[in-house]
Amino acid sequence: MSNEQHRAGFVNIIGNPNVGKSTLMNALVGEKLSIVTAKAQTTRHRIMGIVNTDDYQIVYSDTPGMLKPAYRLQRDMMSFVDTAIGDADIILYVTDVVEKPEKNKEYIEKLQKLECPIVVAINKIDLSDQQKVMELISFWQKTLPPALVIPISAKEKFNLDSVLNAVVSKLPVAPPWFDKDQFTDKNMRFFASEILRERILENYKEEIPYSCQVEIEAFKEEEERYDISAVIYVLRDSQKGIIIGKSGSALKKTATEARYEMEDFFQKKVYLTVFVKVDPDWREDKKELRKFGYEE
Length: 296
Ligand SMILES: Nc1nc2c(ncn2[C@@H]2O[C@H](COP(=O)(O)OP(=O)(O)OP(=O)(O)O)[C@@H](O)[C@H]2O)c(=O)[nH]1
Ligand SMILES: [Mg+2]
Prior knowledge:
single chain, alpha/beta, Rossmann fold, GMP Synthetase, Chain A, domain 3, six-stranded mixed sheet, three-stranded mixed sheet, 9 strands, binds guanosine-5'-triphosphate, binds magnesium ion
């Protein structure tokens, strides 16, 4: 294929919390780049997943679910969303059969004003029936014309070919933005911290996961294994106790699960050490948030 015909572009995945944006990106890229849990606000960063062929390069961006920010971390999360709306070649708007379609009106109004093509994916149709899905398709065709509206199940990998075809047909003619062997913009430390954060989201209740931040203090690449040292920051002393659990049992479970998951992801033995520290300010403090990669 000659350079003049190569297609490439940014396909930015936007939508409300918990609709399945990360599940969809992982399925489209074929790698578990973004963590997925049943809890809302799982994704906190913009994470790129790149699909390369000889003919095209699709740079997907997974983003945090859209919400009204209550603290600085959430404001930073929403600035990732705003940037992604601004620099998209194509918006892949994800909704599902569970949420009220009119949720988050301001964002819908923003999307209505955009010039770039929009593909709407109605996710989780495995949980619905045909009539409800037909109603939603017509709602979204009316709300975001001339968007292509595609019913899918990201989890069951149903109808994802239609999403891929829609995206490829709208990709601009352009040279690749990234090396053709690159499949993400994030490094190994980032994935290690996200894997541990996913285990925290799964293993702890209520406000605990939302009070936690993970920092990878050291990541040493030995020949036989990776030596990883992580810190879980919490907001209060009482939360530290909950994370650690009785005689350290809760932390041991979380760290062990994270280690297995890291070994699976990195295809390498992992030696993981996890510390817990209190940092009352991390969700609000600009410098702390920058350190954790939330400021662009
Ligand atoms: N039944 C069903 N569940 C799904 C589907 N896709 C995703 N889910 C589930 O929905 C939940 C949320 O999925 P995520 O991919 O984390 O959603 P998200 O939009 O990235 O969420 P945030 O990052 O919190 O904004 C998880 O429990 C998924 O397993 C689907 O097609 N069908
Ligand atoms: Mg997500």
